[in-house]
Amino acid sequence: MSKLSIASALPLPNSSLTIPRLGFGVYLSPGHTCAQSCLTALKAGYRHIDSAQFYRNEEQVGEAAAKCGIPRSELFLTTKIMRPGQSVDSTYNSIVDSVKKLSGPDGYADLFLIHTASGGTKARKTMWQALERAHADGKVKAIGVSNWNGDHIEELKGFAKVWPPQVNQIELHPWCQQRKAVDYCQKNGIVIESYCPLVRNEKADDKTLNAVADKHKKTTGQVLIRYGLQKNWVPLPKSDTPSRIVANSEVYDFELSSSEMKALDDLDQGASGAIVQAVDQ
Fold it and tell me: Residues of the chain with pLDDT > 90: what percent?
């Protein structure tokens, strides 16, 4: 395995763009707290922040991006749309509003995702066509999906101008590995982002996980993030505790062995291991 660092990135399909291998999640991070957490993360070396319309903190992410002193071109800002408007035009306008919150009236989003597949075929088509328009206009550099399975992505072929989606963000950790969806994305060159990589600390007492952490003198969270990196996923750990934000970035001075990776792989519980949503049923 090539040496990973906090600056490591993956190429996005059909693009000259790359996506940082480690992201910072801001789900349930409110207002001022979100802005401060983002600034802490950026100071620690993160360059990739993952927001969403549903999180109601796009403006705070944008505030941190503007204040941090790092050139916008060195940051990678993501957001998501949960549901369409009444038309492609109104959905496009919603996307543009999010871009303004993240990056100002003349700015752009690096990545814009459809947050869920659950709205049905018509909703997925409306949102995808609006994203394609924003992509063509330069408001959005890359477009993708979240919580989609292979069937949903195949459906896009019937109308999409941009295919495949450049990213699919799904719940991924040792207890929910979604192997069918992961295999589909890998075969089609789609970058896989991992939300809930820390399992919201629900597995902090797991014996296998702790044995690996103790061996490396690392936290269980650091092991889980490193696991995701070595799976070639893009983990999106979330915290509003400054010390944990920093610790979650300190995952580049150790490597999990093949036997340790297998021990963690063997924890998979399939769909029943999900704490949010399994797209593989």
Answer: 98
Spell out a b/e string for 129-168, using b for 16 or more CB atoms within 10 Å of the CB, else e: bbbbbbbeeebbbbbbbbbbbbebbebbeeebebbbbbbb
Tell me the percentage of the chain whose pLDDT exceeds 70.
Answer: 99
d(CA 102, CA 105): 9
Cite the active site residues.
55, 115
Q: How many CB atoms lie within 10 A of CB 128?
A: 24
Q: Give me the residue label for tokens 């963690």.
A: 264
**pLDDT value for 280:** 78
Tokens at residue 52, please? Answer: 């969403």
pTM more than 0.90: yes
Q: What is the pLDDT of residue 176?
A: 98
What would the two tokens of residue 225 be?
Answer: 């993030």
Q: Residue count of the chain, please give it.
A: 281
In the three-class reduction of DSSP (H, G, I as helix; E, B as strand; rest coil), residue 225 is classed as helix
Q: Which residues contact 15 (CB under 8 A, 6 or more apart)?
A: 141, 142, 166
In sequence order, what DSSP letters do the residues of 226-267 get, joined into one string? Answer: HHHHHTT-EE--B-S-HHHHHHTT--SS----HHHHHHHHTT
User: Per DSSP, what are the bridge partners of residue 20?
Assistant: 9
CA distance 75 to 95: 19
**pLDDT tens digit sequence for 66-93:** 999 999 999 999 999 999 999 999 999 9
Write the CA distances from 135 to 21, 43, 128, 236, 245, integer angstroms. 22, 29, 10, 23, 31
Tokens of 130: 């609006």
d(CA 48, CA 42): 8
CB atoms within 10 A of CB 254: 13
Residue 76 is encoded by which pair of tokens? 């990678």
